[in-house]
Design a protein that fits this description.
about 400 residues, alpha/beta, Rossmann fold, 8-stranded mixed beta sheet, binds guanosine-5'-triphosphate, receptor, cell division, cell membrane
């Protein structure tokens, strides 16, 4: 009997719950915004970084740059269907114009050149210059990586002027020094970077150099320089040796809306990536393709082979218009030796001297140009994204002597 009552009570409870459920469904019928919102969400997915990114407009970035917060988004939550899920394209930065960058970075340059600048001026304007003093002047110049030949040339010229004019006041000496240094830096060299379309194809820039000199960073910074000059740029991550290099490059490009062609396979054939990048550049009608390479090769033969192959494979589709050698200014004469090996493997058309902010040996500009016979076209003066400047001989010399 007890069991019978129990069954009756359970039955009644089920009946009451069922009725409540039916009533609730009838009241809520036809108003299902929240579930629709949830279904809409996948269609509003953020722009990702897949290969089809290559077709995107310049306003959309490839890279890993994080999506910024939505401006003006009401904090109290969604009011319309789908609004909450719309994720804006990552903000594209407007890089600083290349013009006048060296002026902005002048203080860093002056620091790096204090050995030649302040040291030398102090020596020269100390009045009577005897043989010992001139030797000291020459030593100061050599210590600044100017190179023995250039240092001797400069000292000879200054000695002659002091002898002829007989004056050694600071302003006069400063003028002489400025003039002689400028001559050594060879202001007439063509320092333009090939970055305009050649007929129906983009300009192709290959960036080479020993690992750690700042190649990847330089490619990223150069992309910014060119974007600031309204060039349509595409990057090729042919440094397949270091897995993070392609990510690093993609992030640099993404910040300024520049796409990166890369391989997802670590250790992929760099020549194949370079080929794909140039192909994409031609198809997308960009102005310039910049290709980053690895420099981690242990011997000259290996280096020649790899760079030679990259060059040959690119040339199946396009000439290479610019080969930039990235050189770390802090490595001084050692770096120069390495640079010569690269110059034998490929025809270098320009030098990028990085980390000039971290050395007191600015004279390397002169010696690298003299020894490789190609101009320094860009200088790196810090780790900031816009700390790469077109090399301007006048501004460089002014920073030394003033
Ligand atoms: N202070 C200073 N640091 C720089 C400059 N250029 C590059 N660097 C730094 O140098 C380091 C190496 O730069 P990367 O671009 O990774 O060098 P990499 O040659 O591509 O190296 P691998 O990919 O290993 O071949 C980074 O920490 C950069 O921020 C510069 O002009 N000044």
């Amino acid at each position: 009997m007890d069991n019978l009552w129990l069954y009756v009570i359970i039955g009644l409870i089920i009946l009451v719950l069922g009725a409540g459920l039916v009533y609730g469904l009838m009241r809520g019928g036809g108003r299902a915004e929240t579930p629709i919102d949830e279904r809409e969400a996948p269609r509003q997915a953020p722009p990702g970084l897949p290969a089809e990114d290559m077709d995107r407009s310049p306003g959309q970035a490839t890279g890993a740059a994080p999506a910024p917060e939505q401006p003006g988004q009401p904090s109290e939550g969604p009011t319309e269907i789908g609004v909450e899920e719309i994720i804006p394209a990552p903000a594209v930065e407007r890089p600083e114009s290349a013009r006048g960058r060296l002026q902005r970075l002048r203080a860093r340059l002056a620091r790096s050149n204090s050995a030649i600048g302040k040291g030398l001026l102090a020596l020269l304007s100390r009045g009577k210059l005897d043989e010992e003093a001139w030797e000291e002047v020459e030593d100061t110049l050599i210590a600044s990586d100017l190179g023995v030949e250039a240092a001797t040339q400069l000292v000879d010229s200054l000695r002659t002027q002091v002898k002829v004019e007989g004056a050694t006041d600071e302003a006069t000496v400063r003028d002489w020094l400025r003039k002689d240094l400028l001559e050594l830096v060879q202001p007439d060299m063509d320092r333009r970077i090939a970055s305009s379309r050649v007929g129906i194809r983009p300009a192709v820039i290959l960036v080479v150099g020993v690992n750690g000199t700042g190649k990847t960073t330089t490619v990223g910074k150069l992309a910014r320089v060119l974007v600031a000059e309204d060039r349509d740029v595409l990057l090729g991550a042919a440094d397949t040796f270091r897995a993070a290099a392609a990510d690093q490059l993609e992030t640099w490009g993404g910040r300024v809306g520049v796409p990166t062609v890369r391989s997802d396979k670590e250790g992929a054939d760099p020549a194949a990536v370079a080929f794909d990048a140039v192909k994409a550049g031609i198809e997308q009608e960009v102005d310039v393709v910049i290709i980053d390479t690895a420099g981690r090769l242990h011997n000259k033969v290996g280096l020649m082979d790899e760079l030679g192959k990259i060059k040959r494979v690119i040339e199946k589709q396009s000439d290479i218009d610019e080969v930039l050698l990235v050189l770390d200014a802090t490595t001084g004469q050692n770096g120069l030796q390495q640079a010569k090996v690269f110059a034998e493997a490929v025809d270098i058309t320009g030098i990028v001297l990085t980390k000039l902010d971290g050395t007191a040996k600015g004279g390397i500009v002169v010696s690298v140009q003299n020894q490789l016979g190609v101009p320094v076209k860009l200088v790196g003066l810090g780790e900031g994204p816009d700390d790469l400047a077109p090399f301007d001989p006048e501004a460089f010399v002014d920073a030394i002597v003033s």
